[in-house]
């Protein structure tokens, strides 16, 4: 066999080029970034990313409710909370107005934006401020076994049917408090009320942000009255006035204590049906959100990743966002409870049979509406705080529905004037 021998100079050049080729494969190797996200996250994120890119990640996690105060405090002071941070849909207006985050239009390709349809929620005045990584919209989660044990053969499509099913489950002694509903002064209480407002056929505001929930025949008013009725009738645990939605999901529904999650997160279905993480594996399912009319509705609450303007490692930060929101990683990260934001990833998971209640989720995803068709206002955090504080007070018997609705309207007016 003939051997081909390179001239010495050519061989030396090739040998010298090897490190350069390796470096080009990982052009940012050796850099370090910090990433701040809600807990819990997958345990191998940092190691997987470093193996692929050579970039070291210091992954920091906090509870969702604790992240925004940390971000705001740091960004007002002009310090870097992290190179990559959580960026919730509800913060878009406020963070855009403050000009705290780097526009990503020039570094995120148009095919990605097209594949991730909810990117529009994070686009303000043509600037893409965050890339959505979890496609959080609301469905209703149910324990199929509880329904079957109660003799319920068809899942509820209306709110009246939902109440009837819950009462039957309670009467059969299957669950003392069959409906999981957060009523604490936390974001979970707000989002549940928003969903029920949609379910009663209404919106929160008109196009000029005038409140639409003050009159007794309005959807928002009916939604809170409905929640208080569920509490009064013993369908919701009174302890819910002190519980976050995560505590009800993980401490009650996943433990088989409750039968229904009013405002369910589809991304949790994987963990809920994992026998290593749940006592109800094989029993948790999503159903289309029941409404007063029987025609399902829902809204989206996607979460994104973004880069603060004060980050000193923007290129490496963008590399992390691209990796974390790639189709391959979104499919992998689904097992950790994160529903893909990419249409391609969601479709492939469902086609492969890997998406729990896949047909329902695909059907519900087609009905996802923006909570604020006009765009998330900069005063949303104050509005949401007013909502869950009023709901909590009403659930404790400290406010009537009239007083709670007026309290929300007054707080909104004050926030808008600031």
Q: Which runs of at least 5 residues are low in confidence (pLDDT < 50)?
A: 1-23
Strand ordering within the main sheet: 2-1-3-12-6
Structural class: alpha/beta
Q: What's the SSE pattern?
A: HEHEHEHHEEEEHHEHHHEHEEEHHHHEHH
Could you estimate the helical fraction of the residues in percent? 40-55%
* Inertia-based shape: globular
Cα-atom radius of gyration: 24 Å
Question: Based on DSSP secondary structure assignment, what is the total number of beta strands?
Answer: 13
| Most strands sheet | 5 strands, mixed
Instruction: Give the averaged pLDDT, no decimals.
Output: 91
Report the sheet-strand fraction.
5-15%
Q: How many angstroms does the end-to-end distance come to?
A: 83 Å
- Count of discrete alpha- or pi-helical segments spanning 4 or more residues: 17
Short description:
With 418 residues, the protein is of the alpha/beta class.
In terms of topology, how is this protein built?
Elements: H1 8-25, E1 32-38, H2 45-53, E2 56-62, H3 64-77, E3 84-88, H4 92-98, H5 110-115, E4 123-124, E5 127-128, E6 131-134, E7 139-143, H6 144-149, H7 159-171, E8 179-180, H8 187-199, H9 219-232, H10 245-253, E9 260-264, H11 269-272, E10 284-287, E11 298-299, E12 303-306, H12 314-324, H13 327-333, H14 343-351, H15 358-365, E13 368-369, H16 380-395, H17 401-417
